[in-house]
Amino acid sequence: MTEPSVAEEIKKMEGEYEPLLPVERKLIWYTFSTGVVLLAIFVFISRWFR
Amino acid sequence: MTNEPTYQAAAPSQGEALAIAQGRVTEDWLAVWIGLFVFALSLALLKGIDLLGWAVTTSVWTAPSKALAPASKHFANLSAPLSLLATYFFLLVVLLLAAKALRADLKRFAAGFTAIFIVSYACWFLGSWAYIAATPDKRPALKIAWSLNLTNESGFIIALLAGLIVGNFLPGLAKALKEAVRPELYIKTGIVILGGFLGIAALEQRQLATSVIFRGICAIIEAYLIYWPIVYFISRRYFGFSREWAAPLASGISICGVSAAIATGSAIRARPVVPIMVSSLVVIFSVIELMVLPFAAQHYLYGQPMVAGAWMGLAVKTDGAAVASGAITDALIRAKALAATGVVYQAGWIMGVSATVKVFIDVFIGVWAFILAWIWSAKIEPRPGEKVRTVEIWQRFPKFILGYVATFLIVLAIGIAAPGLIPKVKASMAQANLFRAIFFLMTFFAIGVLSNFRKLWQEGIAKLAAVYLLCLFGYIIWVGLLISWLFFHGILPPVLKG
Question: How far is CA B263 from the centre of its chain?
């Protein structure tokens, strides 16, 4: 594939936006919130066992 | 306009994917074998056999004629040029065998490697010049009034700059060197050898080493869970990228650059051009980070050296650039701490934290790709009859980590089982470490050669670059700093003096 077609493809995406599916929203939200909760737990553990 | 430079940037991993598909040996496995080979040769010293003592070492110098020497006193009669030649021929033979296994063009590889070795070692030599390298405590002995205080690791930066000149201004030369420009092979081999070196550090400070490993694991889980969803959301919601582009882009920016982008690309069945475009950006931005972040860390974090090391591992993408940044940060912060506070930290701990964090990040790439593959095939783009196989986790597992863990554990086991051997193990690892430094040097040069900054200005990649720029410098770097701070602040490397 040549680059101009990639450029065109990326430009085309602006007009043909694929809306976020509910499953994508869940993936984003669950991953991020798990990360924040684990962050709190790990920080607590690492301080506790310092 | 062709897409050759982009392909070139991602070439090692592309070749890697093809080699896996064809059941051939990969750079990943070769790095394990080469690293273990050097490690095993160095361990012969435990039996009193000096197999690597002829290798060249470079001291901080004021008179060029006194800069180079063989590593061991057993080879004191060997002249410096012969020691350098022996080191070159040893590496040439070992790497030619690797090139043969990779089915590379041996003549082109030998020529390319020779040029890379000469330029890289010349950069190391220049970086060891006392006016560039000497720390304040060494100036009286060297009889100099001033120095840049950059330590001899400044040779890495000079090698990177030399590589950038070749990659951006001498395309003919870059093309001629291409066969031997293999930063992933060099850095992975260096990391395998580094495992033994860090094993020594762990032996001397077991509690600190355990703490670093635990905190490293904590930090990288956060990298996956906190970085990835936000970058994916930003690229989908605000930049309008399709799922096929957003997922590899999020993995490339968040996790571990080229490998993660390619693993994610194949997990979600993206077309090959997608991870290739992302990979080229990863390489370019890694170089920018490599040139900026270690100096920022030196300026702002010299009081928290381990935070700085973890930050390099979390913020700088690609194995090569991350561990390389750790090496530079290690040198710069130790020099600054000495100049500013008179404290001498033990070398290697800051780089060790960067390597530990990076290695743990790599371990989970396969798991993450597996999770994404399952979500995509079951929920987002279901395809009838298609199943995700758990064996793919192993297939995507970076094998060089096995070598790193092996050298680390072997040194640890020897030290615990026979404490009387620790001084000899230290001497062995010091010899192996000379080759680690050369592999790192060649990595810096090779990264520079592969970084074509003109790509940033080309049509098409600009929008990808905008997401990368925004997420990397607006989010990843700062969250990485916060996470590093939360887990590593207050933890200091062993203090030798001060």
Answer: 19
CA dist B52 and B404 (Å) reads 20
Phi and psi, residue A2, nearest 5°: -90, 160
Give the pair of three-digit tokens for residue B462. Answer: 């600009």
Q: In angstroms, rounded to a whole number, what is the distance separating the alpha carbons of residues B482 and B471?
A: 15
Say yes or no: B232 contacts chain A, CB-CB below 8 A.
yes
- pTM (2 decimals)? 0.79
Closest by CA position to B319, among listed B161, B476, B443: B443
**Which residue of A lies nearest to B487 if distances are taken between CA atoms?**
A43
B379 contact partners, CB below 8 Å, separation of at least 6: A23
Chain A, residues 4-23, CB within 8 A of chain B, namely 4, 6-8, 10, 13-14, 17-18, 20-21, 23
Kindly state whether A44 is in contact with chain B, defined as any CB-CB distance less than 8 angstroms. Answer: no
Whether A1 sits inside 8 A of B271 (CB atoms) is yes
> What are the residue ranges spanned by the domains of chain A?
19-50
Tell me if B487 and A27 make a contact (CB, 8 A cut-off): no
Structure tokens at B203: 């032996």
Residue-wise pLDDT for B334-382, tens only, equals 999 998 998 999 988 999 999 888 888 887 888 888 888 888 888 887 7
Distance from first CA to last CA of chain B, Å, rounded? 57
Residue B146, Cβ density class (10 Å: 0-12 exposed, 13-18 middle, ≥19 buried): exposed
Tens of pLDDT, residues B215-239:
888 878 777 899 999 999 999 999 9
* Tokens 């079951």 belong to residue: B378
pLDDT tens sequence across B42-66:
999 999 999 999 999 999 999 999 8
Q: Is B230 on the interface with A (CB under 8 A)?
A: yes
For an interface test with B, which of A1, A5, A6, A48 has the most B Cβ atoms less than 10 Å from its Cβ?
A6
What are the angstrom distances between the C-alpha of B126 and each of B56, B79, B241, B439?
Answer: 15, 20, 46, 17
Q: Residues B185, B191, B194, CA angle at the centre, nearest 5°?
A: 145
CA–CA dist B348, B198 (Å, integer) = 7
Q: Do A3 and B3 touch (CB under 8 A)?
A: yes
Supply the DSSP string of chain A, one letter for each residue. Answer: --HHHHHHHHHHHHHS--PPPHHHHHHHHHHHHHHHHHHHHHHHHHHHT-
pLDDT tens track for B85-111: 999 999 999 999 999 999 999 999 999
B71: left (phi over 0), alpha (psi -120 to 50) or beta: alpha
A10/B211 CB distance under 8 A: no
